[in-house]
Design brief:
There is one protein chain. This protein is an alpha/beta fold. The protein folds into 2 domains: 62 residues, no CATH class; 324 residues, Alpha-Beta Barrel (TIM Barrel). The chain has 20 helices and 10 strands. The strands form 2 sheets. Strands 3-4-5-6-7-8-9-10 form an 8-stranded parallel barrel, surrounded by 7 helices. A two-stranded antiparallel sheet has the order 1-2. Helix 5 packs across helix 7, helix 5 packs across helix 18 and helix 11 runs parallel beside helix 12. It starts with 7 loop residues before the first helix and ends with a helix. 49% of the residues are buried.
Length: 468
């Protein structure tokens, strides 16, 4: 089991012969050992140490190691712009939300990517997921980069903030405070190393308005305002990939009129706020799915009637505006036989989350006692979320994600995790094939040049490393 350091000095002692400080920089002395036991100790210390200085040191070392070993956080923006110009096509980028076992899931994903020469893959976390999985942007970035290092990965790592979403109820009573929450989320994400952010102000669409432009106005105004903010935060020469959204997932399907009104309004607003600023790289639309799927009373998930023609047409409209195309949310619980259809209709990106959570909880190797404990936790802590007509299975299905944070360490340290991760590896490999991203590393490298960025040495490390 990896070691959790209780101090900076203990952490540095564990890394003796693996990595050392040279002034303000990290020197990797033994790459194989760093990618082996060293990175595991760093990931576990960052996630579970009770010493804040040790946590900060572990985060810094993971980031600096990722810079030294060319496992750098990057923006997918330039690849998406190339798609908008028609230079690349026939693939759909999977954007995978890792809620649980983040280090090992990232390692598994990049092992699968390495074996199939996949470069076009995003790892993301939604703002809501940050809360119940106990992963702030800096936590998620550290775990993902550590997992990529453990996998032997070299190449860009696309970290994405998913669904930076407005709460419509709060916005109606206090729009400025609600908007400031999203501004702060964007700042924290960029500070943590994210170079891809999906803005979701689609919750502000008001269908009671007379014209489509009026319906979309609050949506595109806030999206443009936040995009201008993000552009002002870009300090390393990297253009952050920014996504917009027109249809709240789980609501009615989007249409061409709405998309044109949103994109045209967004462009006007952004030009007013930041003349010449780079705009969106993609736009999310609603085509019939819902987040997590719809659980059935007796177990299982309801069949989804997804409109691929809407997805195709809206992607065409998006590319007419220079974007990569349309993005599909809520897809991880779809039947396997549907995934090959997304690249066939030129879907730019597809978001996959709950299916991987389900594969963890429902795997035969998942300990029955732990599952019972999690279900009991749901009854004790999420009972107020239960709808009057929900069965036991439906209630547990919709609330068990909330247990991921409280059970974080148990999930990271499952005795049976290797068997479960092997199944996740097979699923990821299947998705890579169906979505047409196998062999995409050369394409990615042709458009994406990750910038090397170093962070200041934490004071606690400087004190420990200072000569006595």
């Amino acid at each position: 089991m990896p070691h959790v350091a209780t101090s900076v000095s203990e952490l540095l002692e564990r890394l003796a012969g693996i990595a050392r400080l040279d002034g303000e920089r990290l020197v990797v002395e033994d790459e194989a050992r760093l990618r082996g036991e060293g990175i595991r100790d760093l990931a576990w210390t960052a996630a579970f140490s009770e010493d804040e200085a040790a946590i900060e040191a572990a985060r810094w070392i993971v980031w600096e190691a990722s810079q030294e070993l060319e496992v750098r956080s990057a923006s997918i923006h330039e690849l998406y712009m190339a798609r908008g110009r028609g230079e690349v096509s026939k693939f759909t980028v999977p954007a995978i939300n890792i809620r649980a076992q983040t280090f090992d899931m990232a390692r598994t994903l990049y092992e699968a990517a390495g074996s199939a020469d996949v470069g076009a893959v995003i790892l993301e976390l939604a703002r809501s997921e940050q809360t119940y999985t106990w992963q702030r942007p800096i936590d998620y970035a550290t775990s993902v980069l550590a997992g990529a290092l453990a996998a032997g990965w070299r190449g860009p790592v696309f970290l994405q903030g998913d669904h930076y979403q407005f709460n419509a109820t709060k916005y109606a009573t206090d729009p400025e405070t609600t908007t400031e929450e999203i501004r702060r989320a964007c700042r924290l994400a960029i500070d943590a190393g994210y170079r891809n952010i999906d803005l979701d102000s689609s919750t502000l669409v008001d269908l009671s308005r007379a014209s489509v432009d009026e319906q979309q106005r609050e949506n595109y105004v806030r999206a443009a305002e936040l995009t201008a903010l993000i552009r002002s935060l870009e300090a390393d020469g990297t253009t952050v990939s920014v996504g917009g959204e027109i249809g709240e997932v789980g609501k009615q399907n989007s249409n061409e009129q709405e998309l044109r009104a949103y994109l045209d309004g967004f462009r006007r607003e952004l030009e007013d706020r930041a003349p010449g600023a780079v705009g969106l790289s993609k736009v999310s639309v609603q085509t019939g799915t819902s987040h997590g799927g719809v659980p059935l009373p007796g177990g299982g998930v309801a069949e989804v009637k997804l409109d691929f023609q809407v997805l195709r047409r809206l992607g065409e409209v998006a590319r007419q505006h220079g974007l990569a195309g349309a993005v599909q949310h809520g897809a991880s619980t779809l039947p396997d036989e549907l995934f090959h259809r997304f690249p066939a209709v030129e879907t730019a990106e597809i978001h996959l989350a709950t299916g991987f959570q389900n594969s963890l909880y429902e795997h035969p190797a998942f300990p029955a006692e732990l599952l019972e404990e999690i279900e009991a936790w749901c009854h004790a802590n999420a009972a107020d979320e239960r709808k009057p007509d929900q069965t036991e299975q439906q209630f547990v299905y919709t609330t068990r994600k909330k247990a991921i944070g409280p059970f974080k360490r148990q999930l990271w340290e499952l005795a049976t995790k290797d068997e479960i991760l092997a199944a996740q590896h097979r699923k990821i490999g299947f998705l890579f094939t169906e979505l047409g991203v196998n062999g995409s590393q050369e394409m990615v490298d042709g458009y994406v040049v990750p910038v090397e960025v170093h962070r200041p040495l934490p004071d606690a490390m400087r004190e420990v490393a200072a000569p006595r």
